[in-house]
Amino acid sequence: MAGSELGEVMTKNLFRLSPLVGLVLSLTANLGFGQSSPRARDLGVPFEGTPGTLNAITDVAGVHVGHTTLIRGEGALRVGEGPVRTGVTVILPRADRLADPVFAGWFALNGNGEMTGTTWIEESGFLEGPISITNTHSVGTVRDAIIGWQVERGVAFQPWSLPVVAETYDGSLNDINGFHVRPEHVRSALEGAAAGPVAEGNVGGGTGMRCLGFKCGIGTSSRVTQGANTYTVGVLVQANFGGARQLTIAGVPVGRALLGDRRAATAESSQPDRGSIIIVVGTDAPLLPHQLKRVARRAALGVARTGGTASNGSGDIFVAFSTANEGSAGVRPTAEVTLLSNSQISVLFEATVEATEEAIVNAMVAAETMVGRDGNRSEALPHDQLREILRRYNRLE
Questions:
Q1: Which of 79, 245, 263, 311 has the fewest CB atoms within 10 Å of its CB?
Q2: Measuring CA to CA, how many Å separate 314 from each of 29, 110, 243, 344?
């Protein structure tokens, strides 16, 4: 079987080794059944706030996540052939009620990127269907595949669909102009999406991503608010921004400390002006669209805590949704909705900032060193050195 044929074998939670390239090939419909990689808290990284049971966006009841990961080939770039280091990630806000839109709001901190479907979110206040994240040149394919999937199941709310599909650029590791994400990969992620733990790092749309000078990708976290009413805020990121010198973890200038080490030397060569981050915020708090736009803005503060500055070349685009107020988009003449008072919303802002920061660090901690096209190499964040630096600053738990 040829290497290209191997790359089209669909597997679920299965890893195959290609005899031709000697690389692990994973085409996973769903890696959400458990995390196999360590997380930031496992290393003793301190964070503020109280996480949910899974410390993931799936702590928000009804939210499902699915990944399809494509890794194939090695060596020099051959457009259309590889090497391939990419994929797609999907988030279903109401997995058990696909045709019931959720209230949503979005915000662009810097707009050198793409998130389709946001015009209708801004106009209507509703998100109709799943959110998907992939590489920059696969947005169209993913969008069309989602429409087809919705049509087959009769779950589109309107006679037409306006899917939300976002991207970050993985061309330094991936044959991005080869258009390797295909409709069947999108469908596999959608059909395999599940509740429970969410795989992080080199998975799904985050497979070929780098951030803050090191290998990065998908990360997630959650917070449970305290007080008279308890709500959950969950965040999922696809992180691909910044340079090593900017990297800040738990308030410590980790990147600057690591730059004195040889393992960090290649990280500094990455270009902080070329990168992006997509952030998805979900909550069960009863928020209306204008409030969710406010929540989406606060994700920017979580990015800043890790050292991000929203450079000119960065697409920093965020979307927030609420699973409360079911049935609000129905065809009835009127709908009764519950609104959380603005006087109570600050705890959700704080939770969003905290969960965004941790999700980004989780993405870095989970990611593993990857070699991609033309031998380009993205080093993983060295866990042992991270712990030592945090200990030096008395920030290791």
A1: 79
A2: 29, 6, 12, 33
